Amino acid sequence: MWGFDDSLMVVEMDRMHTPPYIIDFAKVRLNSSPEFSDEVLEQLETDGLENFEHNWPAVKRVMRALEDCLIYYLDPKRGNITFPDMP
Questions:
Q1: pTM of the complete model
Q2: Of 37, 56, 64, 85, which cross-links 52 as Cys (Cβ 3.0–4.6 Å)?
Q3: Is 70 within 8 Å of 11 (Cβ atoms)?
């Protein structure tokens, strides 16, 4: 990420050279963490393991890195996040 503007709600980013690749960046929340129930968080973990298999820890790492910048990625699924070893 190069920068952002809160008033315009714009994020300036560059392309990543190593996976995971976030293809669809439409469902994000800026500056405020969404509050999810324990059930929703458990389902996210189950779905993540099912969709990404051995790549799920890398997806969680990139989501945490985004959260460090107050960007909350809300749609981690195949087609939105890809890896070279995923069909």
A1: 0.77
A2: 56
A3: no
